[in-house]
Every structure is written in C-alpha cells, then in structure tokens.
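Two proteins, back to back. First:
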Amino acid sequence: MLNWLASHDGEDDAMAAPSTCPPGTEHGSGSGSGCRRIFGDITTNRLWTFRVLMHEVLGPSEHLAVVGNCEALGNWQPAAAALMTQEDNVWSVEVYIPRHCATEYRYMVCAVEPSSEQPLVRRWETQFQARAIEELDEQPPKEQLDIFGSVNGQEKVDRGWLTREAIVQLKFFYAPFTFKQRMKRRHVQVKVTPMNLRIPSAGYEPSCGSAGPVSPPEDSLSNDTHDTRENGGDSSTAFAFSEVVTLSADECEIRAQEQFGTDCGPSDLVIFHITVGDLENTAYLIDLYTYSSRVAKEDGPPHHLGYHYVLPNLFKRSEGNLEIPITCAKGHRPLGMMRLGYLIVRPSALSAHMDMSVSYARYWNNKWTGLDVGHRGSGTSFKAKDAVIRENTITSLKNAAEHGADMVEFDVQLSKDLVPVVYHDFMIYVSLKSKCSMQEHDFLSLPMRELTLEQLKKLKVYHTAEGLSRETRSFHNDDMLEHQPFPQLSDVLDALDVHVGFNIEIKWSQRLQDGRMEEEFEHVVDRNLYIDCILDVVLRKGGNRRIVLSCFDPDICTMLRFKQNRYPVMFLTLGRTTKYKQYMDPRGNSMELAVWHAVAMQLLGIVAHTEDLLRDPSQVNLAKERGLVLFCWGDDNNSQDTIKLLKGLGLHAIIYDKMDVLTTKEVKQSVFHLQAKDSQKEMLKLQALEMGHVWHTSANGNEEQHA
C-alpha cells in the first residue's frame, strides 16, 4: 500500500490553481491511435517523442495515453489525450508541443469504449506536481525512459473516475447461500461475468476492441452446460472490467478475478467491482464453484455447482438486495437461493468536464496534523444549555473560524426540491398553531426532506430536542439571516474565508442492526441523484478551498469517490460503541473493516469514533500503516486533555465543540491561512532576488526588502 501523505515542502499550497500555458497552434484533435504526429508551425511548436516504460500487464482493451496542458495533449481532457503505441514494455507517441513555454503532462491507462470510441480513465498518475518539459529542455536519448507511476521517486497512481461508464458492485457478505441439507457445508467460490444483451445486426463483425476485457468464455465452466453461442461468443461478452475485492488484511485492494472465482465463506465480505460501458444492456452471469474436499482443491479444477443470470431490469434503484435462485449446472434444476446486495454508480453530469491537471483525492500534506475542526461550527447547540449560537449556521461556522478552527465540520442533506442545505437531524418539528403557543399537541414531526427550501425558511421549525421536550430554545440574534437554520450549501461556500477548510458530512439514513431505519421512513430520492445534487454545488463553488467529503454510509463514500476526481473522501465509522446503535452494514462497525473498505475504494482515510479509539488506542496504527488519514469525532473530544492525548497519538484532525473554549492555539488562524502567508512571503523573496533586491529579517521579526 502506497503512502499518499505528501512529504515535500514544495507542495505547501496544495490547493493552488494548476499552472497552464496558452494553447499552441497545433492542428488536429488530441485523440487518436498509434504513433501520430500533430503538425504545426515549427516556429511555435517542436516535435517531441514521449516514451514510458510500463511494468504491469495491461488488460486486452487497455492502452497507455499521455495528457497535458497543451492542445496536442488534450488540454488535460482525457477524451482528447494522445494514445500511445506499444513495443515490448515501452509505449510511445510523437506530438508537436509548444516551443516557448513549459509543457506539463501525465500518463494514464485508458480503455477505448467501442460505441463512442472515447477513452475511459482506468488509472492515472496523480502526483501533485505533474511531469514537465521546460522551455529549454532537449529531447532525451531513446534509452532514457519515463516510468509509469513514478515521478522524481514518488509513486502515485489512482483509479479513474466515471465519465461515460458505470460501476456495478455485487456484495456477497458472509456466504449468503441457502442450499439443500447435503450442500450446506460446501465452501463456495463465486465468479461474475458481464454479458452483452444487445442483439448484433445482420453481418455484424466484432472489432478487436468490442470484446470486453473480462474473462474469455472458456474460463467459465458454465460453458460445459450451456450453448456456447448463447453464453459467451465474441459478441456476447460485454465491454466491461470485472474485478473483485475481499475486505481482509491481505486482499483489500481491488484485483482481477481468478479463473474459478473468489472464496465467499461464512466470514468473508466480498465485493465484485464491475465497470461497464453499457449499463442498460449488460447482464451478469454468476457462476458458483466448489471442491469436493480441501484435498481436491490442489488436484484440479473445481466442480461447477450452479449459476444464475442477473438481468439489468432487476436493478430497480441505485441500491438494494436481490434474492435469486441458484440453478444446478448439471441438471438445470433449482439448487438453492442466494441473497446479495448491489450498488449502481452512474457518472455525474459534471464528471465528463473534470480535467486531469491535478487531483486531491488522496492528497494530504504531512504538515497537516493535529488539526482543530469545529463540530457543526461552534458545537452542538441542543445538548449544552449554555450554547448561545445555533449549530450548523453560517454564524456558527464563522465563529469557529474566528477562534482558530483549521476546518469546520457540518452536515448536508437535500430539501424536497433537491436543494443542498446544512442541517444535522433527519426529523424536524413544525408548529401547527401560533408561533407563540407551546401546547402539547402543537407539534407535527416530519422528515426534513418533506419540506421545500422555501418552507424551511418560512415556517417556524423546531429542532428534535425542542419537539420532544416541548421546551423551545433561543439563541443570540436569532432573527438575523446568518443565524438562521437551513443555510444553503452554496451560501456557506460563499460566506466563509477560502482558507477555512470544510469537512462536509453527507447525511444518509441507514438501516440499523434491528432492521429499523435511522430515519423512520424509506428514502424517496435515488442515491445517484442525491449525490449529484450535492456534488454539483461543491464542484461549482468549492474552488481552491480544502474540502473533505465524508459519510457514515460506505456505499455513499464509494459513490463520492468514483463520481469525481477532485476532492478526497473519508469514511465515518461507529466502531465498537455502547453509545449508539450499530448499523446493519458491518463495514462501519469495526476499525479493521473500516480501514479495509477505505483501502479498497481508495478513500483518503477514515473518521473514527473516539470512544472506540480510547478503548484501544493501538487501532490508530491500523490506519497509519495503510497510509490513511485519520480524523476522529465524538462527545469524548470535548475535553482539552482528550484533545491533547489524541494529538499525541498522531491523529490528523480532531472534531470537537466549543472552539472558543477548548482550543489552545495562540494564533487564532487556520493552518491553511498561515501556510498561504508563508507561500506568499517565499514568492516575494524570489521576486526581490530576481529584481536585485536584498531580503532580510528586521529586528522586530518582520521581513523586508531593500534595494
């Protein structure tokens, strides 16, 4: 596992806008195949050969490409990248690049989708500083090669994000099979093969790229019992990448499937991660294999136990559970049942416009440690009787920033008209009578999502604590706009200083272990639409602000990760707790599973529950050893002694209430603000030196320049 924590001083101002140069006068598009030349005026352009050594084996439909900050390299757009040709392990392409400015570039592994002939980003180099060809650089000798993923000794490669394709995840948790009595003790291996449902037109000849990079039909023993023309000819295998991950210490990175599948035992959590080009016309052949005994596993191939085809029309929503029959591979009779969960991740409307100039998805500067994060701004206001500022308001967030918060944490969910607003609880209370009346039956409990933004603004809405206790609370300047609850996410992004970091928690009601929902009602808005509405605001308004996205729902974290390539995602967890009811999904109920899920989905890290960390502080190492960033949350954090202890353990950030009381900072500014000041000083020093001026530190500590 690579350590993604940045360690170079040159990366201090991590969220600064990437440098670009004006587009040159090259002719032709930035996409193509093979070794190509893009001709232009030789006074403004020069021919350059890009050569890169690729150590790993690529899939049948995978290619290397180069993308960069000039027209010939696609202006950082993956769809216009220059495709390369292969000779042994070396890939190359010739293009004309600008002569009079630096050219920045990155290599990526892409797959060309047959129907659109557009490259899909499979993996790409994500070093903060891209590779660069300076204005005066000469073409290096042929034997001097770039190495894919390695830049100046730093190895960083990330999975891509969704542009036109989709991800289907099938979850086999704890051997979800029901067999007849004689089969109950059988250990089962599962393989998933995407199948193309499109009927080829007459005279159809599949191109070399149309067959998907999945296991060829002969790898599936289901061909022993099915008509091979129907079940796996060249035109029946879908354009897809079928991979798998097991949430365990040794197998928690997504990998290609084995020929006869993956163990799905009683203690295994297995997720099949399938990237498909045509979601609506792809089915999934699930093959089950077993060995007659443990000894037989070493002697030869397994027995093909059974199979089932999952058709796309079974996916009614973006997530759900399927209970499907297992058909005996030999006799084609019912053999049993299996129950699996599924998740569909679709590309967002903005994803096709994201470029490859920079990514912060797993970027964290090693100077950012022990950060102070204001919980809901200045703290939870309905647990403490002495709170004078309402939680999750613009005023609360600003107050925390003014008292030195490096970041502020707040909760976001959607109103009925799909507007992202800042509010914590799923339920609210609405007054049915006069605002001055407080009788026993004056309140109506509603899901917050059942009111539009206008209704939330105009109605007298009470917090859950007020509704249950029938005691209203008043806060300072409650009538002023920035003190009002339900601020829009867009307004919050505009209102706070850009140097204040944001930890945006996405609220999503989950099912608890006892079968009930956190919120009393089932979701009515589809997951993909829900996340897209929030990301639309964040991506349009976020700019260069340090933003971390987080959620308690592991599937929401997966969606946030693969729907965009800019902002990092962290998995919020409960761990082992006596204070809260645990979720039905086990991934957030223990530190180990949370870490393995974060590694599998390439998240930045996890936000652990301090109750669990204090129970066993050695768990901090579980995250650190995997190169993950670690935040923590919980009521236990509201103590200076606990905050000091957690910082001593090396946590990257602590989320707590009452920033004005508990912070021990002498300088009440965020670390990002101070860092920006230092970067500005360094820039002024360089400018002074270039102009022949002298820069020195005066007696009072101020830095000055003199001619």
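And the second protein:
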Amino acid sequence: MTKNKGEARKFDPTFKGPIHNRGCTDVFCCILFILAILGYFAVGILAWSQGDPRKVIYPTDSRGQFCGQAGTPLEKKPLLFYFNILKCASPLTLLEFQCPTTQLCVESCPTKHMTLLKAYLNKGEQEYYKQFYTFAVAKYVSAPEILRDGLCPSMLMSSKPFTRRCLPALSTMKGGVVVVGNETIFDNGEGEKVNATDFLDASKKSNVVVEARQVAMRIFEDYTVSWYWILIGLVIAMVVSLIFIILLRYLAGIMIWVMIVMVILVIGYGIFHCAMEYRSLKGEPGSDVTIRDLGLQTDFSVYLQIRQTWLAFMIILSIVEVVVILLLIFLRKRVLIAIALIKEASRAVGHVMSSLFYPLLTFALLALVIAYWAITAVFLSTSNEQVYKVFNTTECDYSRNTCNPETFNTTNITAQCPDAECLFAFYGGETYYHKYLILFQFYNVFLFFWCANFVTALGQVTLAGAFASYYWAFKKPDDIPANPICSSLGRALRYHTGSLAFGSLILSLVQVIRVLLEYLDQKLKAAQNRFAKFLLSCLKCCFWCLEKFIKFLNRNAYIMVAIYGKSFCTSARDAFFLLMRNIIRVAVLDKVTDFLLFLGKLLIVGIVGICSFFFFSGRIKAVEQTAPSLNYYWVPILTVVVGSYLIAHGFFSVYAMCVDTLFLCFCK
C-alpha cells in the first residue's frame, strides 16, 4: 500500500452499517443554502410582481398595448396591422425587432387594395378605411391632413393573418413573378409606384422574429392533439421498466443475456428499416437531393423524403451495433462478474423494495425545481417596461432617442424632423431593478443548478444509506431496519443537508461556468480569431471533464457520508483514496456494470420508441384512424423516447446506486 493512496480501514467486527450516533456536518454550507433559497424566493416574488407573460403571447401595437387580450378594449382586435410594411425592410428591424412604422390592432386584415385619396371619393370605401385609423378623424377635413399627422395608412393592400400579423397576400405566378391579389404594381397613396417584390422583401424582414414562432406553434398544436397518447406511451414505458426490474430481481442472469441479445436485435432492426427506406426511395423524384442542398426546413418531414437521411441513420446505427458487439466480445469475462454483482444488487433491491418507488419523489422534486425556474425566468424576461423611441426615414439628430408618446407632438422634435414618429421600440427600463435584471437572471440559473443537484444528491445519499444497511446486516433480513429508506432520508435531511449543499454547490459552479463558456462560444462564432476559438474549445473540454469527475467523486463521497456520517471533504477524501486503491476494479468491473444497465435503458427506449414510431406515423393499419393528425409526427415520438429514457433511468438508477454502494462497501 502506498502512502499517497491513504491508509486502508482496519476490519471492525462490531461495525453493523450506517452509524446512528452522528452529528451535523458542514453547518456553514447548510446556513448558506437556506439563505440562498430564501433569496431565490425573494427573486421569484419580485419577478412575479414585475413580470407580464402576456408580452410573450400577444403582439403589441405602437403604444405597447396587447392585441386580442381578453378584458381590454382591444379584446376583439387580435391582429397587428403595419401602416407601411415596406419600412420593415429596414435593417433596423433586425437590430431592434421592431418595424419603424405605426402599428395598429385590428379585427381583420384588409382584403383589397385601395389608397386613402381614392377612398375619400367613395363613401362606402371611406367607411371601410376608417377601421384602420388610429384615432377618430372627424375634425380633419382632407386626406392630406390625415396623412400629414400619420393617423392612418396611405394605402391598404390585400393581406392575410400570419402569426397574428397582417402580411401581404403574396403568391408567385408562372415564371416566378411575385403578385399580391393578381397585381404586380401598386400605388402607395403618395404618388409613387411600388413593385410587389418589394413587399416580399419587407414581409421577410418583418417576419424574421416570428418564423421560429410558427414552428413553435405547430409543435404546440401537435402537443394539444397528442398529449394523452404521449402520456399513454410514458405509462407503457413505466410499466415495461417496472416489469423489467421485477424480472431482474428473480432472473438476473437470464434477463441480462436476454437484454443483450434484444438490444443487438433492436439496433439490427433499425439498420434493416433504414436500408429498406433507402432502397424504396431509389429513383423517386427529388430523393437524391443532399441535406446540404436542402438547407434548414421548418417541415422536418421533408428530410425523410431524401435518401441521404436514411443513409446517415443507417451508418450511425451500424457503428453503434459494431461498438456494442466488440465491447461484449472483449469484456466477456468481466461481463460474467458484473452479472454476479447485479444478482447481488437484485437481492438487495428485493429486501428494500421501497427503493424502487423513491425515484418518483426525485422526479416530483426535480419537476418542482424546473417549474419554479421556468416560471421565474419567464416573469423576469417579461418584467421590462415599454420603451418608446423616435423613428424616422430621413436624417434626424433625435433618431432612436427615447421619447414619450403622450407629449411627443408638443416637443420641438416634430418641427425639426417632420417625418419623425414616437413608436414602441422594445421592453426595457432604467430603474435599479432593470439595471440589475441580468444579475437576477444569472441568480435564477445558478440556483436552478444548485437545487437540482441538491435533489439528486439527496436521492443518492438516501439510497446509499438504505443499501448499506442491507450490506452490513449480518442476518438478512432480520438485521435490516424496518424502513431503511425513511430512516436514511431522515438522517440525510437532519444531519447532512450542509454536506449535500456543499457537494452540489461545487458541481453547480462548474456547470454555470460551462453555460458561460457556451454563451461566449455563441457570441464569438462570427469572430475570425482562431486562437480565441481554440482556447475556448480547450476550456469547454476541460470543464466538461471536470464536471464528469466531480459527479463521479460526489457520488462516492455521498455513499461515505451515508455510511460514516462525516463531512463532505473528509468523505470525498476517503472515497477517493479507496477508489485509488481499487482502481482496476473500479475502471473495469463498475463501468461494465454501468454499461449493462445502460443496455437495459436502451432496450426499453428502443421498444417504446419503435412502437410510437409506427403508431404516430400511421404505419399500423389497424389504428391508422385512431392516430392523431400531426404537423410533425416526430414531436410526440421524440417526447416519448426522451420521457421513456428518463423513466428507465429513474428505475435503473436505483440498481446503479445499489451496485456502487455494495461495491464501495466491499472495497472497505
């Protein structure tokens, strides 16, 4: 034994498992964590009092009022109308996400082309035009006066609602000619002719922010019509996982080999299916288009119509299949030992059956943490005030200055810049709250990581304490405590909240640094400094490795905390030296066991994923009419697959924690 690996603990025949007479550990971190939680609640209350999620849902007019919001004067005006859509082609749209033109909430979009001057010659058209006035214009005598004060648009054109905004009803005729309502040239009401192509460019710019919202809305629609089927799929995943765990309890050896064979067969079927799809598309029009040529499409089903997609899937699955088979061949002897360890873990789980239901508590607590973080983030991001700025088309000294729409017409700005308008620009603010808003957002993210890691750590300590009670029980099950899970949970919360907070704090700091590095990477993507990119990539890699190491060390430190009741640093040191003395066993046996359990997760995900694919894609004729009509059928499939993995991971994490605890107890 080398000195740098610590001293081995001497055998103690009187030791009977987790020590009951223990004291509180890492009290300072416990107090710090409690204060941080109280501060988190304060930030949430502050955000909820200042925020307004309606800003995410409803479009706003030039005065910052919400279009179509229930209980307001604009309740029956859900659509946003642009006075001059051509101004949306300005680069300012991309910089401030706001068109430099008056915007008005309307009941319906205009359905025909006309100018204000022509409308004044026809009383019927004049009445139609009035619904697009900003104010009552009874005191105005002539159309030029109305246009001078910017009270209504100089021209209307046929439009259609898109993401609650009135955009020109553009279409393309043969030869690529862009038309709006069968017209190519328009009178803009100011004596100028405008080409329909100009409206196309303006529509693209005005829609630059809401294009992503279109995809999001389609995905939301898919969830609204398929949510109950998704729940059924997740329930099936839970039942399959539970059955698998129960069978593993009584038939561990057989189930492991069945699991290995089934994983190989499921991946093999995936390769076969991809090959059949690749072959069936041969000779089909457009199937030879490459993914690069196709570019980014909002309709993702288009990618399934080209051969290259299925070829990529087939290659990826083939690589996974080969890697799995090679690992099983070269590690076959270790696999047999790992199966024996899983058998012992199965016996432990059998004596502590309540451990199988503990992940439900972890899921509930994590869901609570995620929900609180998400709601607080939304309220923080929508807690800004309405900021108005001066917009103009000609040169003006006051351009983009902050202004007040109520007093704007009485200032000297309109005299110096006749075409200037005071329009709603964005949401911001200059109060102390708004100045430090970015710090509140950062605090929200940091506390999210800290709380999520604390919940995970609590689950690990609780399970470790319960399974350690099983391992050190001389006569099983007589010497095992009556409620090992409850006893272990009580000890963890009463004595070791500080240690859990300490370990999760260290991990959270590393995770936040990784988030900041990802943020910097996004900001520097356009930069041409190769050294900066190389340095950033190295830092990202180093902190990724550091996070993995800390997670591994924390996990084993929590096991030592559960058994001996010492502080986090002492437990982490003991666990580290213990693992160093048994590095070969740790590197091979423990990781092989993790690999076998991962194959179990993969099998459950594969079974549920394949069934959901055939159901949602309408491939099963018997239930073709039952399957919901979807924009993207991959949305519920991906949700079911991810949810199935999380459910399977929850159940198998009990086994993984049991194996790690028994392994560490054996090493001691």
